[in-house]
Design a protein that fits this description.
mainly alpha, three-stranded parallel sheet
Length: 204
Amino acid sequence: FRRVLFRSLAIALETLAVPDAGDPDSANAKLEGLVAAIRDGAGRRWKVGFCRTPVWERCDADAHARMEAYVERVRAHADVVELELPAEFSQLHENHMIVQDAGVAKELGALAAKTPGDFSASLYDNIKRGEAIAPARLAQAMEYQTWAKKAMDAALAAVDVVIGLAATGEAPATLDVTGDPVMQTIWTFTGTPSLRSEEHTSEL
């Protein structure tokens, strides 16, 4: 069933995903071969990258232990390697916040000024931080993002798929907050597709 599902998703992506004239980053995007990769990859042993990311220490000890145990089970089904990212990735989360807040301020700043009561306190804080970012600092962060995307592409070229923690630990006990998104930031910032899966090696 999973193979049929993945093949269907691959067909949909190859059919629908085309370069966007308004998005320069998509100009050279190539999605051809996804269906063939799923078809031809069924009979071989996959190479799986285990990526701790530079913010691994922000995760709970229990999350560490469960992830390490999961990786050991994956070894029975695939070749697992430690995916080492360049040291400069330690700057990713700082630069992500710069790009994110500047974007929020650009898109919502004028509206927030007219109807401040329509925004949550946290979103309003994002806007205020974004408005305070100097153009030169934003340009620097965006240049770093371009580098990070290329560096991530180079790292991923060595493996078939990457596994890692999707969250720092258990979900919050209330709905007041959704938890720390730091484990997802690296994939969002580099434009890397990611899926959150339950803890089953049969997902491979």
